[in-house]
Amino acid sequence: MKRCCRVTFDLCSVSQCLEFSEGSVTGDMCEDLCVLGLVEYKRCLYYENGKKVIEARWRGRRSRRFGADESKGGGVNNSSLARLLGKKLKNREMSYSRAELASLWALLQQEEYTFLRVLQDLSTHVAKVLGSCGHFYAVEYLSAGHAWDQNIFSLHDVAISEGQDQGEGGDRARWTAREMMHRIALSFLDMVWHFDNDFTHKLHLCDIKPENFAIRKDLTVVAIDVDMAFFEPKMRDILEQNCSSDDDCNFFDCSSRCNLSKRRCSPRRSNSNLQVICEKIFRPWFSPTLLGAKAALPLQVMYLKTSSEVHLTPRQHVLLCL
Cross-referenced InterPro entries, in alphabetical order (predicted)? Predict the structure, then answer.
């Protein structure tokens, strides 16, 4: 797979650079990729079902570089995202060149790019897009979580920058692994509240697992794989299907209930982001094994300890899965 991924990267780069030299595509990465050679392939992170995720260095900075997601094929289906991005594009005073339009169209066929691009200025809990060239785009590199890691995230990867020896940075440098875990947990809760309340429509996460999240240096939890994230209107369309039992109304981690008289799934989701995060992230993470033999109720122990150590805002008291 790694060799195939590298070959695909090289071939796609050559193809994009040929189109760039012909003036067919453009982007703020193109010159660095095609002329200056400042985009360096490092390793393949994911290559399956047409989706390619590659770690690269761009101007000495680590980034996750995504090729076209060939598995979609049908373009942007999340109409809420399309409308939001359309409003942003209309605010531009200058007209678009043909190369810009071609590149933008290629990017918009990738729903994950559209999602990240729309939420750039609206959320700290999604990965930042760094740049693009044709259908390629790069996002910030963040180390993903792992189900097999005792702390889910590798806390050693959370480096303290040189300018943080004083104040908050100094306190952060003295945090224990337990304290860092608590703050990460609070960031998960903040993210849940944010996705539920801070947009026009609730944002549903239908594929919740450690590998789909990462943390920044300040311990902010970030959603890095949002292929299965949908705003409420799209979520209702997905859930409202024919059914003969509740089992037919499950869409990955998003569920509804079957109306047996109508034989249709309810368009309203019956579980929540918080419930799934509690079940698939918090419960395995804060298990009695990790907290010690005296922790008969590990989530309660975590919550009480965190509440006493950290000033909680009202939104952070939404831990209802105890």
Answer: FAM69_kinase_dom (IPR022049), FAM69_N (IPR029244), Kinase-like_dom_sf (IPR011009)
